[in-house]
Amino acid sequence: MPMSNNTTWIAVIDDEESIRRALLRLFRSVGLDAQAFETGKAFLSSLQDRQPCCVVLDLHMPEMSGFAVLDELQAIAPDIPVIILTAHQITAAHVNNSLSSAVAILQKPVNDQALLQTIAGAVRTLHFDQA
Fold first, then answer.
1. Integer Cα distance of 53 and 60 in angstroms
2. Are residues 5 and 50 in contact, defined by beta-carbon separation less than 8 angstroms?
3. Predicted model pTM
4. Measuring CA to CA, which of 28, 85, 94, 114 is 20 to 30 A from 12?
5. Which of these, 52, 5, 50, 57, lies nearest to 32 by C-alpha position?
6. Is the model's pLDDT at 124 over the cut of 90?
7. Percent of the chain at pLDDT exceeding 70
8. Is 37 within 8 Å of 46 (Cβ atoms)?
9. Angle formed by the axes of helices 17-29 and 112-130, to 10°?
């Protein structure tokens, strides 16, 4: 089934419920539609129905890591911008090898304005590339 962009929305993928709730609250407070996913598998399955304009992705999750989600997403929908959120230190090797397709890597706890600005830039780039 082809993927479509019926509406502009942001996917939040994080195994921590408090993070998912906080990010959904933040996005909705500024008028952004968002949907949260507890696992990478749940998110990837949702792509059959609709495609987000941006993904906010935690790296360290059980079952399927953010690294694996990013690899899978690059294979099936490489144009979706991905913003990595992590509480862990990221090495230059990770950035160069595993995370090079991410538009940004932000440390938790993330500054709300920095995240919103990063999403705005990623979405602008996506719309520009599709024009």
1. 22
2. yes
3. 0.86
4. 94
5. 52
6. no
7. 82
8. yes
9. 70
17 close to 39: Cβ distance less than 8 angstroms? no
Q: List Cα–Cα distances, 4 to 19, 50, 54, 85, 95, in angstroms.
A: 27, 5, 13, 25, 29
What's the token pair of residue 58? 């935690």
Q: Tell me the residue length of the chain.
A: 131
**22 pLDDT higher than 90:** yes
The three-state DSSP-derived secondary structure of the chain is CCCCCCCCEEEEECCCHHHHHHHHHHHHHCCCEEEEECCHHHHHHHCCCCCCCEEEEECCCCCCCHHHHHHHHHHHCCCCCEEEEECCCCCHHHHHHCCCCCCEEEECCCCHHHHHHHHHHHHHHHHHHHC
Residue 9: strand pairing partners? 33
